[in-house]
């Protein structure tokens, strides 16, 4: 599956309708963003069960601000509509694959239980 472009209007619906969503915050003028794009696209092809979204921070300034983007590229991962990973920088293919597997293997019930204990 190819990457999809998301906007402020489609962001929430994208999270609602997909179990795992990776989001690449980027801009056309950003060299590291352009270098990361093929790695991100290849991961999207290898993992059709995951939604790989892209947010153009120039076109979607409000969304980038709402996500507290301070540096690009920034990669975020959501599982069950919950932010589980956020890191600025462009990981290499191996690093990206490690993050993908970690997110896939994440037990959300256990995570919610731990959060519940911390809030108690």
Task: Compose a concise summary of this entry.
47% of the residues lie in helices and 23% in strands. With 120 residues, the protein is α/β, with parallel strands linked by helices.
Give a structural overview.
- There is one protein chain.
- This protein is an alpha/beta fold and 120 residues long.
- Helix content is 47%, strand content 23%.
- A five-stranded mixed sheet has the order 1-3-2-4-5.
- Helix 2 (31-46) links the parallel strand 2 (20-26) and strand 3.
- It is globular.
Q: Helix and strand layout, with pairings?
A:
Elements: E1 4-5, H1 8-16, E2 20-26, H2 31-46, E3 51-56, H3 61-66, E4 74-79, E5 82-88, H4 93-105, H5 108-119
Features:
120 residues, alpha/beta, Glutaredoxin, 5 strands, 47% helix, 23% strand, Thioredoxin, Thioredoxin_domain, disulfide bond, electron transport, transport
Shape: globular
Number of helices: 5
The averaged pLDDT comes out at 94
Main sheet: strands, sense, barrel: 5 strands, mixed
Strand coverage percent: 15-25%
The first-level CATH class name: Alpha Beta
CATH topology: Glutaredoxin
Give Rg in angstroms. 14 Å
pLDDT < 50 runs, ≥5 residues: none
Structural class designation: alpha/beta
Distance between the termini: 41 Å
Q: Strand order within the widest sheet? A: 1-3-2-4-5
Which superfamily, in CATH terms, is the homologous superfamily?
Answer: Glutaredoxin
Please report the total strand number as a whole number.
5
Order of helices and strands: EHEHEHEEHH
* Structural domain count: 1
The residue fraction in helices comes out at 40-55%
Which CATH-level-2 architecture?
3-Layer(aba) Sandwich
């Amino acid at each position: 599956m190819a990457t999809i472009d998301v906007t402020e209007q489609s962001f929430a619906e994208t999270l609602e309708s997909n179990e795992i969503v990776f989001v690449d915050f980027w801009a056309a003028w950003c060299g590291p963003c352009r270098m990361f794009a093929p790695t991100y696209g290849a991961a999207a092809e290898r993992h059709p069960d995951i939604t790989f979204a892209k947010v153009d921070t120039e076109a979607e300034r409000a969304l980038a601000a709402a996500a507290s983007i301070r540096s690009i590229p920034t990669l975020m991962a959501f599982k069950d509509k919950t932010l589980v990973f956020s890191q600025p920088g462009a990981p290499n293919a191996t690093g990206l694959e490690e993050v993908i597997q970690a997110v896939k293997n994440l037990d959300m019930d256990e995570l919610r239980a731990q959060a519940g204990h911390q809030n108690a």
